[in-house]
Amino acid sequence: MTHHTIRGGPVTTDVDVAVIGGGIVGLATAHRLLEQQPGSRVAVLERETDVGRHQSSRNSGVLHAGLYYAPGSAKARWSRAGKPLMERFCAEHGVPFERTGKVVVAVDTAELPGLEQLAARARRNGVEIHHLDADGLREHEPHVDGIAGLWTPETAVTDFGAVCQALATAIRAAGGEVRTDTEVVDIEQRGELVHLALSSGGQQACRDHHSAGIDTRLPDSGPDPANPGGRSGELTAGVVIACAGLRADRVAAMTGHRPAARIVPFRGAWLRLRPDRRHLVRGNIYPVPTGGGLPFLGVHLTRRIDGEVWIGPNAVLGLAREGRTPWSPSLRDLAATLRFPGTWQLARRHLGVGIGEVWRDRVVSAMVREVQRYVPEIRREDVRRGPWGVRAQLVAADGSLVEDFTIDEGGPGSRVLHVLNAPSPAATSALAIGSELSARAVRRFPA
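^ that's the sequence the OP posted. Answer follows.
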């Protein structure tokens, strides 16, 4: 127990800082807190039975150099700061990573202005970038067909699921706690302490509902019916940092804070290249981003740290934030998505793009045709369906997608920090985000 003197009297807390969410951002935050404030009592609370089970491990493992992000944005700053921190962490903790580089390919003259804009943005962000002609493209990726391109040698790959396990080990070694199968079901600040109501043992029942193809939880946030009482314990903390990912808006609602923007789930799926065709891709091959108001980077190819080559992902509106199968619905999540006006504004803005994404999701040959534009040797018979995951995307009420990282410190006197939006490159940036959250917590609550 940690003892503080608050307003003249001793108050006892279980921990100094509780971090909600055992994904890569939450774990990195706890790790950085313990590095910057040795001896602090820090606990990570994760509702799943292990850390990093969702977005943190369901990705292609790319360590982004900072090529795409608006100069001066949090994405640009924290990806540039976070990537070397992540590479150093991997080296120190035995997690493999490799700098495989990336080419961005323009296949026709209409894409050249976009390529130039991307190069200018990369230079402003301090990314090492090289212009390529058609021959230069083939020097780096012999099977690419394009008229021009960009090359950055900084892009790397790793296994972010393994990073999560290493972070959890490091947290425990530094005296922190990582509590899995522990769900926060209510948050109440009383004076200068935060009381967290906890539930445990409900995740298996929740997964059983998903395996049956339906989620029986109610549309509004609240306790899971697998635990009707909703509580199995309580934890008190001086500060709470919520890194809840797909549940970020629901955790914020527990504190009485209801952001105007909401989390809308987008499901992405990959194809796998057959082992005997992996020689077609050396590193990372990306198209020129199409823009159009969407922050997604298009269908690309990545040689992962394990040698597999993934193609994707697409971006389809998700029927569930957490599901056992790609198309299994959650009545609760679907109702929340459909009730939110921003969903309908988003659909109105990007209906054509959305239909195309669904088509490519259902028809493998349609996604293959996308990559054949710049790697024409890839054929339908060369690929198999691969893994899938759901990304948490904050959407504004007007239907615009919030592109940058979003941290909300709550109102005056609030002792809860909320990470409301942490899309890609959050994994690359995780240790830099953790440093920022740690610094904000210490500055705001020095006791």
